[in-house]
């Protein structure tokens, strides 16, 4: 019989489980402490639970932890991990060390529905949502777990297309019974999936990063088919209804493509459409992927673009490229591994 994982359960979910087993309600908080603070890998290690409680839990449940199947290390120190899901599929997770930060980039889906032209994950197609267990497992069982200062939902998939599971994870990360992190340590990236985004804006204080990549809707549509379902102008108008001047930060991700979206006209239009929003812009180099005839903008063009935006009131930076040599950089995550292939890697 397949056992249900406890890792990835929220306190209310654990409370329901405990009640169904006829155990004292306070046991749920004890389990949270073992799962998210002490990070046990066996129910039997929860030593302040009675032997009876542990036996009852062991009948139908397990911790549900899965170690990385393999890893690749970049020359710049970035590490890409391959994790197997409970359905024998594979996802990628990236650890990015810096002088004063240690960031983990996690996946929320196997593949992606959005099919952005410039993204390898989109070329995989969509193969399923990750559960809260499979998302938390990426965080808890990378070797650098205790070093992490920041977490970004910028790996495989569209996080706000999987809102139920992603919001459970955000609770586990930020609630005192979970990791107890400040929401300022977490950024959720989105193409603008409306239903999930509206819920995020109402319920979460985590940072938000919006994939824009062109200020012109017709041009954005050529590289991001989701422009048809989630128009960027509607998205921007929605964001103007919320306050980003305090704890929560809003940023726009802008991959720069040579001769496509990197002209002074594009910079001018960005200033125009983002006027009135308390936000910043992250310029990103395009990382070449197979069979896609796009090129990245040159350094001078990117610097000029950045300077124009900054001079016109849009705080703008150029994101450092990390892990490109191991296909771990922005837009390069993809997993077509099988169980057999992974066994060979090990």
How would you characterize this protein structure?
This protein has 346 residues and is an alpha/beta fold. Helices cover 32% and strands 18% of the residues. It contains 12 helices and 14 strands. A 10-stranded mixed beta sheet has the order 3-4-5-6-9-10-11-12-13-14. It has a two-stranded parallel sheet with strand order 1-2. A two-stranded antiparallel ribbon has the order 7-8. The longest helix is centred in the C-terminal third of the chain and has 13 residues, at 299-311. The protein starts with a strand and ends with a helix. Mean pLDDT is 92; it is low at 338-346.
In short:
The chain contains 12 helices and 14 strands. It is α/β, with parallel strands linked by helices. The chain starts with a strand and ends with a helix.
Number of helices: 12
| CATH fold assignment of the largest domain | TIM Barrel
Strand content bin: 15-25%
In CATH terms, what is the architecture of the largest domain?
Alpha-Beta Barrel
* H/E topology pattern: EHHHEEEEEEHEHEHEHEHHEHEHEH
Reported for the largest beta sheet, the result is: 10 strands, mixed
Sum up the overall morphology in one term: elongated
Total number of distinct structural domains: 2
Fourth-tier CATH superfamily name of the largest domain: Aldolase class I
How is the quaternary structure best described? single chain
Give the CA-CA distance, first to last residue: 27 Å
Would you report the number of β strands? 14
Please list the strands of the largest sheet in the order they lie side by side: 3-4-5-6-9-10-11-12-13-14
- Ranges where pLDDT stays below 50 over 5 or more residues in a row are 338-346
Using only CA atoms, what is the Rg?
A: 21 Å
CATH top level class name of the largest domain: Alpha Beta
Global mean pLDDT: 92
């Amino acid at each position: 019989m397949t056992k249900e994982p406890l890792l990835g359960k929220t306190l209310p979910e654990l409370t329901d489980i405990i009640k169904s087993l006829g155990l004292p309600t306070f046991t749920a908080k004890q389990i949270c402490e073992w799962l998210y603070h002490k990070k046990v890998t066996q129910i039997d290690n929860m030593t302040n639970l009675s032997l009876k409680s542990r036996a009852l839990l062991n009948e139908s449940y397990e911790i549900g932890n899965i170690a990385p199947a393999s890893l690749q290390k970049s020359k710049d120190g970035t590490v890409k991990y391959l994790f197997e899901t409970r359905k024998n599929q594979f996802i990628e997770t990236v650890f990015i060390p810096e002088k004063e930060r240690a960031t983990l980039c996690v996946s929320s889906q196997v593949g992606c529905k959005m099919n952005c032209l410039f993204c390898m994950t989109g070329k995989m197609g969509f193969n399923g949502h990750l559960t809260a267990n499979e998302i938390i497992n990426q965080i808890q069982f990378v070797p650098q777990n205790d070093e992490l200062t920041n977490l970004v939902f910028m790996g495989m998939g569209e996080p706000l297309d999987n809102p139920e599971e992603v919001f459970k994870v955000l609770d586990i990360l930020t609630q005192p019974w979970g990791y107890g992190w400040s929401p300022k340590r977490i950024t959720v990236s989105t193409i603008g999936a409306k239903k999930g985004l509206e819920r995020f804006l109402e319920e979460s204080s985590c940072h938000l990063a919006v994939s824009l990549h062109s200020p012109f809707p017709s041009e954005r549509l050529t590289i991001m088919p989701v422009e048809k379902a989630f128009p960027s102008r509607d998205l921007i108008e929605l964001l103007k209804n919320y306050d980003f001047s305090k704890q929560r930060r809003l940023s726009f991700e802008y991959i720069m493509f040579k001769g496509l979206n990197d002209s002074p006209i594009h910079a001018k239009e960005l200033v125009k459409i983002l006027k009135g929003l308390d936000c910043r812009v992250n310029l990103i180099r395009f990382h070449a992927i197979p069979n896609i005839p796009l090129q990245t903008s040159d350094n001078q063009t990117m610097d000029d673009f950045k300077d124009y935006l900054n001079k016109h009131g849009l705080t703008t930076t150029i994101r450092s490229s990390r892990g490109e040599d191991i296909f771990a950089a922005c837009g390069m995550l993809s997993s077509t591994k099988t169980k057999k292939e992974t066994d060979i890697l090990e």
